[in-house]
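Consider a typical record:
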Amino acid sequence: MKKISIKFLLLLLLTNSTFSCSKEDSEPNLSNEPLKEAEFLNVSYGDDAQQVYDIYLPANRNLNTKVLILVHGGGWTSGDKIDMNPYVTIAKQDISEYAIVNINYRLASQGVSPFPMQLNDITTVINHLKANQDNYLISNNYGFIGVSAGAHLSMLWSYNYDTQNNVNMVASIVGPTNFTDPEYANLINPAFLFFGVTPSNTFLELYSPFHQVEANSPATTLFYGGVDPLIPSSQGIEMDAKLTQLGVTHEFTFYPNEGHGWVGVNLFDTWTKLKTFIEVNH
C-alpha cells in the first residue's frame, strides 16, 4: 500500500507543478563509473543561457539504452524544464531502464518567432546527445513526451525534422496540432505566435503537426480534455482521425470534463496508458 500511495502522490504533482534543481551545473564525464545511475544538470548544448538540458542515466545502461526527451509547455514564450520534473520522478521509478533528457529551449519574444528557432534547438539537442553517445552510454533511439506547446514541438519535430528516423514514439498531452483549424483560431489568433504578423496559410500548415504527419511517422499517443480553454477538442479529435487515415500506430484518450491539464484519477489513467505505450512502442 505504501508504494501505491507514493506513486499516486507523484502523479498528483505532474500537472502545474514547479520544482527547483539542487545540484550544481555539471559536464558529463562518466569514465569512472559508467554503469551506475548518474545525472547531469544544466548541460549546455548551445551559446544561449536557455540552451541547456538535464540528463538522467539509468544504472546498467549500454549503447542500446533508449532515451525519453521531455519538452515543457508555456505557449512558446514561457515555461522551464523544471515544470517537467514530476515526469522525471515518476519515469525514473516506473520505467527506470530509460535515459531521460529534460530540455530547455530558447523562448519566443517580441520580434523573435518560436519557429523554426525552437525546432532547431531540438535538433541541436539530438546532435549533442549523439556526439556524447559514448560518454553517456545511450542509443540513438528517442521518444518524446511533450505538454501543451512542448507537445506541439515534440510532434512537429518527430514528423518533419527527424531526418534519420531516430524517433520511435511521441506523446502529446494537450498539444496544438493544427494552426489552420478555425476552432483554434477562434481561441488564439495564430498571429499571436508571430507577434502581430499574420502568417500565410501555407506557413501555418508548415508548423502544424496535422499537416506534416505521414504514414511512416512514429507511433503517437494523444491526451486531450473536452473543456480545455486553450486547445479546442477538434485539435485532438481530428489528429486522431488523421493518424487513423494514415495508418500510424497511435492511441487517443479524451477526457470530456477535463481542461488544459488534470489531476487525480484521470492523471493516474494518463500515466498508466503513457507508460504502457512507451514500453510497447519505444
